[in-house]
Specification:
With 427 residues, this protein is of the alpha/beta class. It has helices at 28-42, 53-58, 72-78, 93-104, 121-134, 176-183, 229-242, 317-322, 368-377, 383-402, and strands at 4-9, 47-51, 66-67, 83-88, 108-116, 137-139, 151-156, 161-165, 187-191, 194-204, 211-212, 224-226, 248-254, 261-264, 277-283, 286-292, 303-307, 311-315, 323-327, 339-345, 349-352, 357-360. The strands form 4 sheets. Strands 7, 8, 9, 10, 12, 13, 15, 18 and 20 form a 9-stranded mixed beta sheet that branches. Strands 3-2-1-4-5-6 form a 6-stranded parallel beta sheet, sandwiched between helices. Strands 14-19-16-17 form a 4-stranded antiparallel beta sheet.
Amino acid sequence: MLATLVFVAPRTDALGLTAPHGSGARDPRVATLARLADLARQQARAILCLGAPAWAASLGLDPGLSVAPTAPETLAGRLESRAVYLAGGTTQVEILQLAQALCEDRREVVVLDDACFDARPNVHLRALSTLRAMGCAVAPWSRLLADPGRVTLGGYASGDAALYTGRLAPHPAGSHFAAVDAEVAWQTALHRGGVVPRQMALQGEVRDGVVPLYRHPLDFNPEMVPFTPAVEALRRAAEGLVGHPLNHALVQRYRDGRDWIGEHSDKTLDLVAHSKIVNVSLGRTRTMTLRPKRVGAAPAETERVPMVDGSLFVLGPASNAAWLHAITQARALEDDGPRISITLRHIGTFHDPRTGAVWGVGAPWARRADALAALDARPAPDREARRREAERMLACFRDENASEVYDPERYAPGFEVLDLSALNVAV
Ligand SMILES: O=C(O)CCC(=O)C(=O)O
């Protein structure tokens, strides 16, 4: 039997939760508990709710799962599974007694620390150290996502963003992370002359020497190579999930918990309209934050997605337009070892490095022949012209970060520069 998940709220006011589930207001702690309930249901875990039926109902759980937290020893005897996870509140004496009874029975008790709350943080911390001293383990709630089954945590951001687990076939040699890490030629990237705090590589569908071109705020794109075998297998799984081609992969390596990427929305200049973006995560869990661009959005509206090993995060066009995302530096709870992310996109702009032609959705010319004819008809743009074009492109990128509206027209009539290198004094 899969481990039991026990939601604890002997007194509903004890957790200091301000916005009950379904009230319309967002309280990130309620959202976390509701996600956890959703996850446990999908994993067919036994769920028990210690507290009032209204508390169970507020998490979207069957109020019938509610049990009064009396007689902890009897309750411990009724829980059949070897491992028991605790979420919600930890400070009530009945909970400490239940945990003690379970530990004495040599069960594995895991306190899901980032899904436990109390209106009085100091009391909460004291309860946590008591639970540790009893022999309870402490882990983030994303630990439950490590089970191999399929889970979908949907409804992030504007509603078209979701985290999927259990979608990848096992790698024949044991680890997708090790395979990708070994076959990718990692490079250092620069933005406005500064080193980007993570390693990068570019792979794509290279056809007859023509490459898909994705422009975003970087001084130079790493050299693009055709998909390597382990990346190709992941790309196919991601294509199966979203149901459209993904011809471009930005592969990034966060060397440890100090590497990060700042808040941004993905640039739509070169994306096929309305396509989805997929982030495959390998290795250590890191958190993606999602924050509404809306002016006046409350900090509490920020959502936190645990990007666990083997998960696929789908970012739909509505969420990309209205929300910013980032990978924050690791916090104490998170494991700060290396993580690889593979961001897969459907690119509609193409570049032929032999001729310099650029055509497609993000270029002034829709067709290759027209791009070539234009190149033949005029002298190559000088450095000042390229600088002006790169400056215009950067201004559009900034505008897209600030605007909640998906508007491909912001980039009209399109760009020929490949990157922002023309903005560098040294170039
Ligand atoms: O590492 C990740 O999962 C996020 C990458 C990302 O946001 C990007 O490349 O735009």
